[in-house]
Design a protein that fits this description.
Length: 160
């Protein structure tokens, strides 16, 4: 069955989704449409360098990673900066490519990097492909993970 607003010809099972899991109160599975409708969109015009294909220029739109992650209620004391600074977000693509930003990189009291979970790339909706991680502060493209399937939020290390 096709959801209203789904790309023509795409059934619900063809819609890509990502899971927010780990040390959170409210794990969630979110389609690209959920990301678009649930949070305020931000826009990023970026240029990054790829080791194999050279400079790339793109325009992305989507919610902030920190707002999506916060909605799942990470198991830190949100009022305590030191507690938040222990956390990481492991972001994985469907092909196994993954990266591990620190929570402090995207936290407004620390690095405040406007990292996005994109719902649109160069004017095209990503509903069928999946969301893309956007790290506008990066000089190279390796963390621009496409077809994101998982965001694992958790303290590191779990135990010394
Ligand atoms: N899932 C996934 N995303 C990925 C990669 C990958 O191997 N897997 N490679 C990254 C690298 S190294 C670069 S430079 C950019 C390239 O993005 P573009 O060719 O779409 O501009 O995608 C990034 N996203
Ligand atoms: Mo790359």
């Amino acid at each position: 069955m096709s959801r209203p607003g789904a790309p023509l010809g795409a059934s619900a099972t063809e819609l890509a989704s990502l899971s927010v899991i780990g040390e959170v109160d409210l794990p969630a599975t979110l389609t690209v449409r959920d990301l678009r409708e649930g949070w305020r969109p931000h826009r990023a015009e970026v240029v990054f360098d790829c080791a194999t294909s050279g400079p790339r220029r793109h325009v992305f739109e989507g919610p902030l990673l920190r707002e999506v992650a916060l909605a799942s209620r990470p198991l830190f004391d949100i009022r305590r900066r030191k507690d938040r600074s222990r956390f990481t977000l492991a972001v994985s693509g469907g092909d196994g490519h993954r990266t591990v930003p620190a929570w402090a990189e995207i936290d407004a009291d620390f690095g405040d990097a406007p990292v996005l979970l994109a719902t649109r790339l160069d004017g095209e909706d990503l509903d069928a492909v999946g969301s893309q991680l956007v790290v506008p502060v990066d000089r190279c493209g390796a963390r621009y993970i496409s077809a994101v399937t998982r965001v694992r939020v958790g303290a590191w290390p779990g135990a010394w």
